[in-house]
Structure formats: C-alpha cells, structure tokens
Amino acid sequence: MRPAVTPEAAVPAAQPPERVVARVRRHARILILPAILLILVAGATAYGVGIAPEAWQVLAILGGGVVVVLLGSFLPFLAWLTRRTTITTRRVIARSGIWVRVRQELLLSRGRDVTVRGTWGQSAFGSGDVRIDTGHEKPFVLKDVPKPVLVQGALQELMGEEQARVAERRRAEQTMIDGDTVAWGGR
Question: What is the crossing angle of helices 55-69 and 32-51, to 10°?
Fold first, then answer.
C-alpha cells in the first residue's frame, strides 16, 4: 500500500528569486587604438588649423577631423559601451547593438560545459573568450572577457546549482504524476 501524498508534499518548494551575479563588458584594451587615434587627430587638426591661410581650409580641416574622430573613436567607444553581458543565478543575457538592439539569453540549465580560450594577446592583458557548450553546433561565446577563469568558475558553479534545482523539480513532478490518484486522507 502506497502512502498518501499530503498537500504540503504535492506543492514543489518555491524557487529563490533570480539574482544578478555579474555584469561584464569586453576588455577595455580594444579602446587603445581609438584613443590613440583621437589624440593624433586632435593634434593634427590643431596644427592644420594653425597653418591654414584660408577660412574654407580651416573649415575643411575641422570637418575632416570631426568625421575621423566620429568614425574612428566615438563609434568604437559607443559599440563597446552598448555591448554587455549579465550573468544571473538562472541565465546569461548578452545585449549588444547601437542602432539595432540584440538580446540573446541562455538558461544555465541548458549549458553543459564551460571552457576558456585565449590568444597570446588576450592572455597578456588577462582576458579571454568564455565558451558555454549547449550541445548545439554553435556554442554561446562571451568574447574577450576580463578574468575569464573567474567567470568560468562562477558559471560552472551556477550551472551545477541550476541543474540540481531542475532535477529536483522534475523528481517532485514525477512523484506527483505517477499514474496514481492522490488520496486526500486515505484510500
């Protein structure tokens, strides 16, 4: 004879609220060249304005300097600023885009393996790519993350907790739905 399921046992435990664990951007070393370009263009523009004899030449030099700074310094900075990754206790959310916003989410329960891959340049600056294998052809990649080994450890820990929570939830559902009628108070 099977014991009766009490109403308290039939309801799965409430899930803890989702918390933000980390917010990550690409390593700021990608802004080195735009910063150098900004300094060089500012100096060259100031020099060109100082030696230009005509007013239209001054305007052309200023206009050219502004265009180069916008395209070579401001847009890369804006692209870096608008791309971020948020790691929570349940998922990884990657947001990017200047004019078109793209949002990509990965549930941690879907992740299988986390690896770190880095070039020698990334290793010199303490960054790397964190790849989350989901079992599909294309892994979920967090590009050029600072301190990638720390991010990898946190993701592995969070994935283990989330997968254990999902397994517990499935076991609770299986005990509730076992093909038998739940008897309230006896058979």
Answer: 180
- Token pair, residue 144, equals 């050029």
Could you tell me which of 32, 57, 31, 33 has the C-alpha nearest to residue 45?
57
**Rounded CA gap, 77 and 113, in Å?**
32
154 within 8 A of 22, measured Cβ to Cβ: yes
Radius of gyration of the chain (CA): 27
Q: What's the longest Cα–Cα distance across the chain? A: 103
- Laid out side by side, the sheet with 102-107 consists of 20-24, 84-88, 91-96, 102-107
**pTM flag (> 0.70):** yes
What are 86's two structure tokens?
Answer: 């948020």
Q: Per-residue pLDDT tens for 86-122? A: 999 999 999 999 889 999 999 988 888 999 999 999 9
Please give the Cα distance from 146 to 24 (Å, whole number): 8
Q: Are 127 and 27 in contact (CB under 8 A)?
A: yes
Q: What is the CATH number assigned to the segment(s) 86-177?
A: 2.30.29.30
Domain ranges of the chain: 22-82, 86-177
